[in-house]
Amino acid sequence: MASKKTATMKDVAKEAGVALGTVSKMINGLPVSEEKRRKIEAAIKSLNYEVNTYAQGLRAQKSNLVALIIPNTNNPFFSSFTNQVEYALYKRGKKLLLCCAGGIAQKEIEYLNMAINNKVDGIIALTYSDIGNYISQDIPLVVFDRYFENRDLPRVASDNFAGACLAVEKLLEFGCRHPVYIRFYSFLPGEADKRKDGYLYACAKHHLEPDFIDVENSKNNIAVMKDFIEKHKNKDGTLSFDGVFAHTDYYGYIFQKLLRQEGFRVPEDVQIIGFDGINIFGNADDGLFISSICQPVDALAEKCVEILLSGNSSLTPSLTLLPVQYRGGGTTLE
Amino acid sequence: MASKKTATMKDVAKEAGVALGTVSKMINGLPVSEEKRRKIEAAIKSLNYEVNTYAQGLRAQKSNLVALIIPNTNNPFFSSFTNQVEYALYKRGKKLLLCCAGGIAQKEIEYLNMAINNKVDGIIALTYSDIGNYISQDIPLVVFDRYFENRDLPRVASDNFAGACLAVEKLLEFGCRHPVYIRFYSFLPGEADKRKDGYLYACAKHHLEPDFIDVENSKNNIAVMKDFIEKHKNKDGTLSFDGVFAHTDYYGYIFQKLLRQEGFRVPEDVQIIGFDGINIFGNADDGLFISSICQPVDALAEKCVEILLSGNSSLTPSLTLLPVQYRGGGTTLE
DNA sequence: CTGTTAGCGCTTTCAC
DNA sequence: GTGAAAGCGCTAACAG
Q1: Which of A85, A319, B93, B153 is the most exposed place for a label (fewest CB within 10 A)?
Q2: Are A111 and A67 in contact (CB under 8 A)?
């Protein structure tokens, strides 16, 4: 049962028979005699004391909060990343201020200012707008999966290029002869753009003719995909491609549905590899929705937090790429 | 560009040529002469001033933070709920402290204490442990989807009973003769338990023999489902049931996969309705993974926040049930 | 209406 | 090592 009134450090000091400052020191890991330490610990326990974040923050001009600015938590990749960030912070005694900016520039900047004014210890940003100009020098910030030209902020991302190559090579390994690539891009340059570069590179390396959908994300995505399928039908009704590397699991899943609607079999007629590694209903035990190049979400989150809180900015790498991994999910023959 | 050093209220007062207290009053919406208001506003703008949350929180013993204690954000229902809570708070100028407790009792209580000690304005809790005993009288708390015997905390949930009835009736409407129910329950009593009650009630009403899986959630769920299918095979290889009301979309989706693996067609041979209304990859435009009784996630979140912040506890309903809705998602014939 | 002032709970000098 | 004391920036109570 939580006590009626929260105990203050003063109460602890009185209970332990020491000075206020001594309690503060012990809590902050400064040297205190063994005897007083025991008394203070006992007092803390008996009073169920916890430091008041506001007083601490006011005094020290900092908090134990870290803001995560992200478009939303509906997208399963974002929500999984959020979950892992929360955990990485929890392990370090920090709390997560979740900011869903919906990809709206004005809201992203609003949250950014809010975070700065709330004296958060740091900000992890996965934004759609170029926030480079809006951050103040002295607040730690890590950018996930994006890059901005006008500012060199530390960035963390998956190795998208290598992942794309891996996708193509897996498709070839599983018997595909004509792997195509599909994506619907947004206007902002991000690390994920390198998935296309990787696809093109792998095609060149294996002497394949690249073929892809690469149009701007819109309400017409489905129509574009249907059209693509239609245009790739041979005279005998088969398809002129037999493998798909989808920019994300999402598009891979949608594309799979369209193919099946058209009577094609996945993976027998067409094999599909997506990117992200989205688990079925977020449940790691049940495998993936589709075969995928999986991003190491836990490692990515951990790395973001680690870099953010490391403090030593001179040792901070400007770009950290983490390795991805192929996992089968029923849309490939292996 | 954020300024180097944050201005304080004192700076604003000096700049505007008024007293500190006057600035405070204006900011807090208390009456101030039009003339000074203008001066203060100008000073605020020119100094790019924003109130310091910590000082404010320290003094007022409250913050603009609301804690959401939830098992995780991996589960798409939780992540969608989180997203909507964030939005509902944003609209009210509050910030979200996200606490993923993983369904671990000790962690839930830890977060609860943390939230209380951080003087959050309120707590929205979707917990697995009985937190009724651990909360102090004076902190607003709303329980989502759960109930605890020892304490009457305000609760918000979907109308699970009506939803279950609706599911059965939709299955009948679409031509099913033998709808079964499947769930894997956890140990804690929650509002969702009423889905089974609703199923049983609907069966009785329509003179159907109830038939279901209702075992504790475990690693053997798949085996249990496979076994259920096996036991319901007729001599001629058809199944003795033709409709499934799944306790959640998740189990409905898994069950569908198993049925298809066994060569049964969904929805032609067996129709499936889940519960929750999970959108494909969280994207509202692309429909559902399976046909479902959809929970009104936005209204649920909005209601939780509204009740939490309403303040007037004497007018707070002890239970608020929100209506659900059927939506087709390809696993039914309509 | 406005100015003055006493703390909120904590960290951090500074003497001892 | 330890204690005393000065604020961090703000709100609220009070006197004008």
Answers
A1: B93
A2: yes
